[in-house]
Amino acid sequence: MQRPPWAVPDGGFEDACTRCGDCLKACPPAILVASAGGYPAVDFSRGECSFCGDCASACKPRALRRDDVAAAPWRLKAAIGDACLARRGVECRVCGEVCGVAAIRFRPSLGGVAQPLFDAAGCTGCGGCLAPCPAGAIAMKDEVEMSV
Ligand code: SF4
Ligand code: SF4
Ligand code: SF4
Questions:
Q1: Are 1-73 and 76-147 equal in CATH topology?
Q2: Is 49 known to sit in a ligand binding site?
Q3: Residue list, ligand 1 pocket, CB within 6 Å
Q4: What is the pTM of this model?
Q5: How confident is the model at residue 33, as a pLDDT?
Q6: Domain 1-73 falls in which CATH fold?
Q7: Both ends of the chain: CA-CA distance in Å?
Q8: Which among 27, 124, 130 is the best mutation to test ligand 1's pocket, defined by most ligand atoms within 8 Å of the CB?
Q9: Where exactly are the structural domains of the chain?
Q10: pLDDT category, 11, cuts 50, 70, 90?
């Protein structure tokens, strides 16, 4: 389960969050939902995070803290899995077409279909490529956990 952006780390979020639901109401794309237990979570199947910060602004108990507007919202990055159609030899470039920062590009492959090239440094972790993928091949993963 992915906490909302700027959630205080470790156990601090659960300690601070009152489950009031104000962040859910504040989120313009309505990607925040109440998870089991009532804590807010991000559901990328509903859309992408614009990083507007409205959820953090609405959080009176400060379970979401954006004191520094330049603070990273989270450590998420997109991860393209084995179900990717292009990797299975079927033409598809949907993720590359929807990524607003061109963090997924397609490299022509001689005698085959173009293959996705992922730029982790360029990925903002917005989640916008997850829902449009026709194969459900994209997941949002913690970049630190991915590197170990
Ligand atoms: S930053 Fe904005 S779009 Fe992202 S979860 Fe918060 S309110 Fe929603
Ligand atoms: S606004 Fe803050 S306290 Fe209320 S549910 Fe959201 S994260 Fe929890
Ligand atoms: S998560 Fe957002 S920035 Fe990253 S590859 Fe997907 S659409 Fe692009």
A1: yes
A2: yes
A3: 4-5, 26-29, 31-32, 49-55
A4: 0.93
A5: 98
A6: Alpha-Beta Plaits (3.30.70)
A7: 20
A8: 27
A9: 1-73, 76-147
A10: confident
